[in-house]
Fold C2H2-type domain-containing protein.
Amino acid sequence: MKRHLRIHTGEKQFKCDICDKQFSESGHLKNHMRIHTGEKPFKCDICDERFSQSGNLKKHMRIHTGEKPFKCDICDKQFSESGNLKNHMRIHTGEKPFKCDICDKQFSESGNLKNHMRIHTGEKPFKCDICDERFSQSGHLKNHMRIHTGEKPFKCDICDERFSQSGHLKNHMRIHTGEKPFKCDIFDEQFSRSGNRKRHMTIHTGEIPFKCDICDERFSHLESLKTHMRIHTGEKRFKCETCDVRFTDSSTLKKHSRIHTGEKPFKCEVCDKRYGLLAMTV
């Protein structure tokens, strides 16, 4: 009863000597101290992963058992943790309780707000161990690492071409479907990719917002500036797996690779002769 009354009084008599955080129960302080000591007394008997709290071990065990005790009453989707169900419910309610103090954009999950804030702070805590490029989100780093590993887990079911990112596969599929969902605001021209539409719009707006700090050359897109900067830094992150020659951009590597593969995608419409490169000469 004495412990229970602290819920109503707000009394927190147990204090951490390291960070001054206070707790209403001694057991809560004991659990908290493991953050500082690194102690992890609870071990999974299946994979030997260790945890600082018994509750975290209990949640972890559901990975092995497949248990999902928390069920959505609307769509019957099930979850292994109550917090995941709580976040899921916001899909149905439309609730977005986490708000950015800078631009007022709202989010359904605190983690999404945290990731968003890095747009304003410029924080990039995730670093590639190979080329030192930094990223604001762990998922972006994961995608980037496939440049170095060559992993392409996403495959087209029609032509078997493989891609390192799901978005690239999605864009590729429009070659087969002919879908062009992105339309020019001025003319009726349509595009299969949003980036192509964005590039096209600069023809009408004349906008060239990205400037090189070294030579003052300007670009209409950030990716074009990033590629250009490698001229100054000498960075050549794209390596040929066959002969180890390195290149500053992926498109040049792709062209180079045709030397090894013998691929000749460009065909003369008159005599059917094929070429590995498309070049215009006067």
